[in-house]
Amino acid sequence: MKNLKIKAARALKDMSQGELAEKVDVSRQTIVAIEKGDYNPTINLCIRICKALDKTLDDLFWEDEA
Prior knowledge:
Elements: H1 4-12, H2 17-24, H3 28-36, H4 43-53, H5 57-61
């Protein structure tokens, strides 16, 4: 499942995939894969992403109920 929440949060901070990747110490391709839903990050990476985007785990990684 695509993670559009990360993409939206990144856009609000005017941050590119590369900039986010650098902040959380992964490759840009890892951020691309997370946003596309092709890669499930570790909890530690999730936390680093949340801190970089000033969001909570619920904000970015909790699936909304249908």
